[in-house]
Amino acid sequence: MHGDVCVIVPTVRDWEVVRDYVANARAHDFDVDRLHWVLVTESFCDTDGMAAMLADLDVSGEVFDGPAREAWLESRGVGDYAHLVPEASHAQTSFGLLYLWANGFPYGVFLDDDTAPHADTDFFGRHLANLRFEGEIETVRSDERWVNVLYQHADEHGLYPRGYPYGAMGEQVDTDRAHVDDVVASQGLWTNVPDLDAARILAGGDLDGQGTTRTDRRHFDRDFVAAPGQYLTVCSMNLAFRREVVPAFYQLPMDDNPWDVGRFDDIWSGVFLKRASDVLGKAIYTGRPLCEHDKVPRSTFSDLANEAPGLELNEHLWRLIDDAGEDATSYAEAYAAMAERLQSADVGGLENGEFLHYVGEHMADWLDCLDRLDAERATGAAEPAAPPASDD
After folding, report:
1. By C-alpha distance, which of 99, 128, 108, 104 is closest to 40?
2. Which end of the chain is less packed: N or C, by CB atoms within 10 Å?
3. CA 107, CA 97: separation in Å to the nearest integer?
4. Which of 245, 270, 258 is nearest to 356 (CA)?
5. What 3-state DSSP class applies to 382?
6. 25-53: string of b/e by CB count within 10 Å (b at 16+)?
């Protein structure tokens, strides 16, 4: 194993997109030896073909279907935490976070298999430059305390991204400039198919899960950060982050739960990450590098069925944790406070409210699992840590 960037790709469809990202890195003289690929997939997929692709590309990486994930967890002494990684869910990206943590990678990148880099952009180089950013940047806030990441041309297209609360729509946006010097996550946005929720897609009359509006580069004028005390949607299809955030970045027990709540893994993990980052004085950089989002057509009603059980909870979750962890000095401390808040929250009036208790319990288990992995590394049971981060 080598490299300092763990690239995590959940895939059951077009895993060949890895070739596009590797080609982009080589075209821009980004050292591909810095990248270690972790493909999170299922046993019904061509895992041998995925491994052969990594070998053909001459890049470092591993492929994990369900049995391989279970074996890895057992080998690290955390097999009893397998419930943290839901079956057949995009939230299986949490396994990639555990892998990153156990092996000491200083950086992580999430990529979805229906995206592609723009050829004229140094995709990985830009993400890592964002994580090292120091200087003035636009800061955004609204009177609803939510920032629409598509705000720059909202008067033209009227879009709100997946996970943006309905109750926060119609916001008054204000921008300013501020100095930023401690970026922990870099969220790249998307051209072509915007990341919308099913209800908004249906409202536009599209039945194929894509929406009728397309975005292009002219919709993204400048990069920005959401101001402290403001929330924003965090989409994991194009996202880089520092190792330090992993304790507060669990992707949650979506889909495989008694309430059938799904599709909020990256959205809610982003809420927790933003709250913890605000407490600790850190920033989430949003904008470039853009990726091309070529979402595969699928039933909008199917997506709606997955989202509906959590829609009301999404309106209230951020308020429940909004003042948790005020005195925290680490991501783990902030996350523990949010986990405790959800476990004890009065959710009697919310549809599927008990799911929030369930989430809080899993958040606490997440922190315990990371502690166990740390103990395993200390005894030499895990693989050697990756080398220190490069500034190249």
Report:
1. 99
2. C
3. 10
4. 258
5. coil
6. beebebebebbbbbbbbbeebebeebeeb
pLDDT at residue 378, rounded to an integer: 84
pLDDT at 392: 47
What's the one-letter identity of residue 144? E
Nearest to 139 by CA among 227, 230, 220, 222: 227
Dist CA 160 CA 358 (whole Å): 28
Note the pLDDT tens digit of each residue in 112-155.
999 999 999 999 999 999 999 999 999 999 999 999 999 999 99
Q: CA 142 to CA 322: how far, in whole Å?
A: 16
CA–CA distances in Å: residue 342 to residues 164, 182, 203, 330: 20, 28, 32, 19
Residue 240, Cβ neighbours under 10 Å: how many? Answer: 27
Distance CA 65, CA 342 (A): 31
d(CA 227, CA 16): 37
Global pTM reads: 0.95
Amino acid sitting at position 83: H
Tell me the per-residue pLDDT of 235-272, one tens digit each, with 9 for 90 and over. 999 999 999 999 999 999 999 999 999 999 999 999 99
Grouping H, G, I as helix, E, B as strand and the rest as coil, residue 224 is: strand
Mind listing the pLDDT tens digit for each residue in 71-82?
Answer: 999 999 999 999
**Could you tell me the CA-to-CA distances from 120 to 7, 123, 160, 214, 313 in Å, in that order?**
20, 9, 27, 20, 40
Burial, 388: exposed, middle or buried (Cβ in 10 Å; 0-12, 13-18, 19+)? Answer: exposed
How sure is the predictor about 376, in pLDDT bands with cuts at 50, 70 and 90? confident
